[in-house]
Design goal:
The chain is mostly helical and 435 residues long. It contains 17 helices and two strands. Helix 4 (74-84) packs antiparallel against helix 5 (97-123), helix 4 (74-84) crosses helix 9 (198-230) and helix 15 (372-387) packs across helix 16 (394-403). It is elongated and about 80 Å long.
Length: 435
């Protein structure tokens, strides 16, 4: 069994059991307020249908975003949360309860993702939502409904709190707790799939919660209150801003994709010019981002690291005489610094963030003076210069880096690289922390 499979299996099993219990309860007792169930279920399904994944390859999103596999579905998330927190419909108390909430969200989620799964199989690609996100949705919505529905149905909320500001604050508190629950689950699933440290993954999820997550939670509350006051007519009006948000996110992602394609093309310029071996920049970028995750980087820091790793050799285009084999690691320190500074100047002219140019410029500095991303680029570049695509040379290259920790490479970075290589199955490499 692969590492983390038990965790993923446990989350899926819990969601499956909860969803099955909700569906069985609803089938046995019948559907309470079918109009509400149909309206909210349709919004959940529509939100999932509007979601799409990222196509792998040169236009894929940065590694910090690609882990999630597809764009957010704010409409589906807000509608599911609103149904979990729905206490009244145009002033009439509802009685759908926890299990029906889970059943409606589960059925609507399945209706929304099945077309994606069928399309993915028909086209033999890996775009489209990860089914694990539906497991998260079922568990988090079940948690929100469990915090709200029993108290509301028993009169323990509207009695002491009324329907004013204290009631709204209680709804917001439930949504904050639900958002934290979802972030914990998301980071746990990513940890199981990637074996990256849990702390940075959780930090990235919490940052996302403060971004689009806060808009989703606020809209969920407004939807629940709007339907309570005006009935289901409020849903179409409140759904429009989230659809516009999803469209805006898609356009923003398209801009990010174009930027990454530009950076990837610039990185390939050194290969086309014969300055570096084919695939060198791509291998360094992939391995550097994995090491960055291993050492606790995340979010924008990881994106900067990936871009800098792609463009770390671009300074060689300014040289009159090419470096033999494109390997800069064996060069004297002064030559390495000159190439790095030339690369930084080129990067600054491309319009990418200044932080990327800073990492490219600092990659040849003494490692004790470098920021962590520059240390990672320096070490991973040296590893690829020594090993390349020869898996059999991995152990020898890593041993060379370990011997250079006194002067050229930070011991923690070398140890992190060793752990990544051991996890990915490089021949002869162990995760020993020595070095």
């Amino acid at each position: 069994m692969r590492p983390g499979a038990a965790t993923v299996g446990s989350v899926r099993a819990a969601a499956l059991l909860l969803g099955a219990a909700g569906l069985a309860h609803t089938l046995w007792h019948g559907l309470a307020e079918p109009g509400n169930a149909l309206a909210f279920g349709a919004l959940v399904a529509l939100g999932e249908l509007a979601r799409r994944g990222a196509r792998p390859g040169a236009g894929a999103p940065p590694a910090s975003e690609a882990l999630r596999g597809s764009e957010p579905a704010p409409l589906a998330a807000a509608a599911a949360l609103a149904y979990a927190l729905l206490g009244a419909d145009a002033g009439t108390p509802t009685t759908h309860g926890v299990l029906q909430t889970v059943a409606v969200v589960c059925a609507a989620g399945l209706a929304g993702i099945v077309p994606h799964v069928a399309r993915r199989r028909a086209r033999d690609d890996d775009r489209g939502p990860d089914p694990d996100h539906l497991a998260r949705r079922v568990l988090t919505v079940g948690f929100a409904a469990l915090c709200f529905q029993p108290l509301y149905n028993a009169g323990a909320l509207t009695g002491p709190l009324g329907t004013g500001a204290p009631y709204v604050l209680f709804l917001l508190l439930v949504l904050v707790l639900t958002g934290l629950c979802d972030a914990v689950l998301a980071a746990l699933l990513l940890r199981a799939r990637t074996a990256y440290p849990y702390g940075p993954l959780l930090r990235d999820e919490l940052r996302a919660l403060l971004g689009i997550g806060s808009a989703v939670c606020a809209t969920g509350v407004v939807m629940a209150l709007g339907v309570a006051a005006a009935g289901l007519w409020a849903l179409p009006v409140l759904a429009v801003p989230l659809l516009l948000t999803q469209i805006s996110y898609r356009r923003y992602a398209a801009v990010r994709t174009v930027n990454r394609q530009t950076i990837a093309s610039l990185a390939r310029a050194t290969e086309i010019a014969g300055c570096t071996p084919p695939g060198h920049a791509r291998r360094v970028a992939a391995l550097a981002t994995a090491v960055g995750r291993e050492l606790g980087l995340g979010g924008s820091e990881l994106t900067v690291l990936e871009y800098a790793a792609l463009m770390h050799d671009i300074g060689q285009l300014s040289l009159l005489d090419p470096v033999p084999g494109g390997a800069t690691a064996p060069l004297p320190a002064e030559d390495q610094r000159r190439i790095a500074l030339l690369g930084g100047e080129v990067v600054r002219m491309t319009g990418v963030p200044a932080a990327v140019a800073h990492v490219v410029e600092r990659q040849a500095d003494p490692y004790r003076e470098q920021p962590l991303p520059a240390r990672i680029v320096r070490t991973v570049n040296a590893y690829d210069d020594l090993a390349g695509e020869d898996a059999g040379a991995a152990l020898e290259a890593l041993e060379t880096l370990r011997l250079g920790t006194a002067r050229d490479h930070h011991p923690e970075v070398v140890a992190g690289l060793a752990r990544v290589l051991a996890r990915d199955g490089a021949p002869g490499v162990t995760s020993s922390p020595t070095g």
